[in-house]
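Lab notes, practical 5.
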Amino acid sequence: MASIAIISPLTESKVSGTLNVVAKVTGGTKVSNVVIIIGVPEFGTREAKGVGGGKYYVAWNTTRKLVDNVTPTPSDGVFWIRARAVVDGVTVTSPFIGVATANRFQGDSLPTGGWRSELAWAAKYDGTLEQWKQSHSAVVGAKYAQLVNDPVLGAARKVLKVSMPESARYDAEQPTKTTVRFQSSSRRNIVEGDEFCVGFAFMPSTDFPTVYPKNDPANPKGPDATGYIALFQFYGPPYVQGSPLVLHADRRLKSEPLDEFVIRGNELNAGDPWPYLSLPYRRGRWTDVVLRIHVSRSISKGWIETYVNQGAATTVQPVPFVNGAHRVPRVLARPDSEAFRTDMQIYRVVNRFPVVSMWHAGHKVARTVAEADPRSYRNGAKP
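Output from the prediction step:
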């Protein structure tokens, strides 16, 4: 039976400059349509050239972005690579390999870091709305929020309900007039080398909107893209480009699944073949998330682990990435980054939805996964 595999570079190797990525087809007689896919298929799919002996290659300039092959990359990163070919009329696909680019700051002189007690923080949900607000470093859109009994657990837990109307765009506190934003921020004190867990729970309303890409005939409102709806991010100054970590509903292609929140690759992590994390909406039910993060501008030191519970257990459970690994290297800061914070959000483009509603709870920064777990399913899933 025919197969294909990436034979160069080797998995887990460091690469730099321009190199040949080589795939080899074994078995079969008639080979066609050989492609090598570096990172996201939309930008990284390249037609491979044959060099004999069943080998095919593409040249990859690791110092330039995949999206245009011209713009310099802002950081090193991990790129997941695979190959595909048609052999005797049958499509064969290789396993993924992961390589790290090494064109920039390697991080040898960066602090080892770890947990600092100053990082510990938790939003206060068990008091008044004013006390909840004061427990944060900053809040935008607090007048659209209210503390209520948990719709699922009842009086056992207070949660925040936020209903963000389109009219909020005209409020003086809104940072821009092109977006509508609710945002509640933890302390802004997370820096290079810090290692911490951030937990939160969210529950979309039963009418939480589906998002659509441009020119999607399924969109009842026409050809314009609805854009994203962000619900969580890790971010801070100098606010260059987008957040290095954001969980949002953001369909870019018609082929992408409906009603999912995702963490995608981004400017600093461009090598993901598809979203790093995908979570179905589950309208009217809680999703618990804990992200364990080691913050670094260097891909050799930064990493992330993800834990999720959507009712299948009583605690959050580890979620593996595409290669089966749980701890995945990530760049989570820029060389000029100042202190970061974590945000719970409803953040979207204007002129898309009359109102967007969400419940959230358990926003907390802690040392361990267990401490940060929101425990929405502490007694198992409710029917």
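Observations recorded by the TA: The radius of gyration is 22 Å. Residues 86 and 186 are 51 Å apart (CA to CA).
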